[in-house]
Amino acid sequence: MNSNSKARRKAMRHGVAMKTAHLVGANGAPVREDPSNIQSVCPCCAKKRRLAFQRDFGTKGRRALKSLIDDGALVQIKASFSDASSTEHLWVKVLAVNLDTGVLTGWINNDPVEIRCVKYGDLVRVDLNEVEDCHIGEFK
After folding, report:
1. Nearest by Cα to 32 from 20, 40, 41, 23
2. Contact yes or no for 49/133 (Cβ under 8 A)
3. 3-class DSSP state of 97
4. How crowded is residue 16: how many other Cβ atoms within 10 Å of its Cβ?
5. Which residues fall within 8 angstroms of residue 49, CB to CB, at 6 or more apart?
6. Where are the alpha helices (DSSP H) in 1-140?
7. Using an 8 Å Cβ cutoff, are 124 and 80 in contact?
8. Cα torsion at 38, 44, 47, 51 (round to 10°)?
9. What is the CA radius of gyration of the chain?
10. What's the CA gap between 132 and 88, in Å, rounded?
11. In angstroms, rounded to a whole number, what is the distance separating the alpha carbons of residues 132 and 74?
12. Which CA distances in Å does 22 have to 30, 34, 35?
């Protein structure tokens, strides 16, 4: 069994239905998607997904996560971002993972309401340990 099929099995353990996603436009810029369609907002479910994501793709599983991304899987994480006055939890479409540090790089994939330090489409970096929720799907 190759590492790609292992990575796909790990992704499916997160209970995410595979769906069509077109998040990159012809010019390579992100295309908006409604984050409310991505996952339920149940805190218990989010915690379970976060723990499973960190277990499966932590230090030993970074290569599997990179393999999923390289094969065109849609990987999105939720992380908190703060400015001087507020904190907001935003979806990030993951583009790359640093195998040495576990830092995920991706685009902000929804519009912040309260904070101004980031905006939709900004490139950000999030440590794997700061992931609050996740969504893994496939491009079709």
Report:
1. 23
2. yes
3. strand
4. 18
5. 14, 15, 39, 133, 134
6. 3-12, 43-57, 62-70
7. no
8. -110
9. 14
10. 12
11. 17
12. 9, 12, 13
Please name each of the domains of the chain with its CATH number. 3-23+39-138 (2.30.30)
What b/e readout covers 28-46, taking b as 16+ CB neighbours within 10 angstroms? eebeebebeebbeeeeeeb
Does the pTM of the predicted model rise above 0.70? no
End-to-end CA, the chain = 23
Please count the residues of the chain. Answer: 140
Per-residue pLDDT tens digits of the chain, which is 140 residues long: 455 555 555 555 544 433 333 344 444 455 454 444 444 456 667 777 777 777 777 777 788 888 888 888 899 999 999 999 899 999 999 999 998 998 999 999 999 999 999 999 999 999 988 998 888 886 54
